[in-house]
């Protein structure tokens, strides 16, 4: 699949002056709950009312969604408020029911995107549809798998496509529920600049008080829209209580978000930008040059180790370097996380160089 301008058509047709907003409860719970949320969101920036009807839960025994009856509640919400509707589908039966109930936007969840069999089944069931279909990233940070989902839908003649970035699972405990790994979304944008890209800060953060901050980052990275879980009584929600916000909080988030332009034509701004970018280019050149020099020293160490039959990995020395560099980084405004990532990558390259020498 190639990038093409038309990929944006369905989004442009909304003629919005703000990011696309998809909001509503994690799960549809009762008809009254769905209708109340819809009415509270009716006059906001929200275009699509979302609600989970079938909920894929990590472990059995939790609330797994109300099922098809919830689609009738969405239909009624649309009739009463004019909001378009959106829900997750995970197999052919879901697709058939969603289409029967005229759901306007369907998305494939992160746990389904990992399975090409499931995505293909959904693509076949949706063949040629004029509904909007969005693909959430797979739970593991695999851009090819994510794009593979889009390509399967595209091959089934579905033209109103988009992607949702909901973060990636990790075994490590972090401040996020699912770490954003923004560079994956940035890479996706550079491959498909016209494919609408939506951020789901609710699943990235898992916590309502971090949603504004992550939404702002997404907009600063040129995301086209936001999907935010919204509930009239978040603390008593039947699923994902901690990450849902009230409709009033959602409206406030929309007010607080700063929408930035992609570029500005003013000459003075552009001159300054060019000067600063020239500085970055020079520094990047120095970085590569310095790294090349460091690897040459690692090669010399490799030869030395080979001559005395000494192991490549030297944990004590390595941990000393890491400790020192974290401190030095701190003094220069570099986060521990960044210094660790960067030096782990450098260490791996150094090991690869020495391995090559020792094995030769
Ligand atoms: C270069 C060495 O080999 C390995 C690579 C290191 C590095 O690149 O800094 C540090 C320790 C070793 O694990 C060394 O032993 O000093």
UniProtKB/TrEMBL annotation:
Q: What is this protein called?
A: chorismate mutase
Tree of life domain: Bacteria
Q: Where is the Chorismate mutase domain?
A: 267-358
Cite the EC number.
5.4.99.5
Gene3D superfamilies linked to this entry: Aldolase class I, Chorismate mutase
**Protein's UniProt keywords contain Nucleotide-binding:** no
What keywords sit in the KW lines?
Isomerase, Transferase
This entry's Gene Ontology molecular function terms read:
chorismate mutase activity
């Amino acid at each position: 699949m190639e990038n093409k301008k038309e990929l944006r058509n369905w989004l442009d047709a909304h003629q919005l002056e703000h990011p696309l907003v998809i909001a509503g409860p994690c799960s549809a719970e009762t008809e009254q709950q769905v209708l109340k949320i819809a009415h509270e969101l009716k006059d906001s920036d929200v275009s699509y009312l979302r609600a989970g009807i079938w909920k894929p839960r990590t472990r059995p025994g939790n609330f797994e969604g109300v099922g098809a009856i919830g689609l009738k509640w969405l239909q009624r919400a649309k009739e009463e408020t004019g909001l378009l509707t959106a829900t997750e589908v995970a197999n052919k039966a879901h697709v058939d029911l969603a289409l029967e109930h005229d759901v306007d936007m369907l998305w494939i969840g992160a746990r389904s995107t990992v399975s090409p069999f499931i995505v293909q089944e959904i693509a076949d069931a949706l063949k040629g549809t004029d509904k909007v279909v969005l693909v959430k990233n797979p739970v593991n940070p695999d851009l090819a798998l994510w794009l593979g989902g889009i390509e399967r839908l595209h091959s089934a003649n579905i033209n109103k496509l988009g992607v949702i970035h909901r973060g990636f699972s990790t075994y490590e405990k972090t401040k996020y529920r699912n770490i954003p790994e923004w560079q994956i979304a940035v890479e996706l944008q550079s491959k498909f600049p016209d494919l609408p890209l939506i951020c789901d800060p609710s699943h990235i953060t898992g916590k309502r008080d971090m949603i504004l901050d992550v939404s702002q980052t997404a907009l600063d990275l040129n995301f086209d829209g936001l999907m935010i879980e919204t509930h009239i009584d978040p603390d008593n929600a039947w699923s994902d209580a901690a990450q849902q916000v009230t409709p009033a909080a959602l409206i406030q988030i929309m007010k607080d978000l700063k929408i930035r332009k992609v570029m500005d034509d003013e000459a003075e701004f552009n001159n300054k930008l060019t000067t600063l970018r020239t500085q970055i280019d020079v520094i990047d050149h120095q970085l590569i040059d310095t790294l090349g020099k460091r690897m040459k020293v690692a090669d010399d160490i490799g030869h030395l180790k080979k001559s005395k039959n000494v192991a490549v990995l030297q944990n004590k020395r390595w941990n000393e370097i890491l400790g020192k560099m974290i401190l030095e980084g701190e003094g220069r405004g570099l986060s521990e996380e960044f210094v660790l990532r960067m030096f782990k990558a450098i260490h791996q390259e150094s090991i690869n160089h020495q391995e090559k020498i020792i094995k030769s």
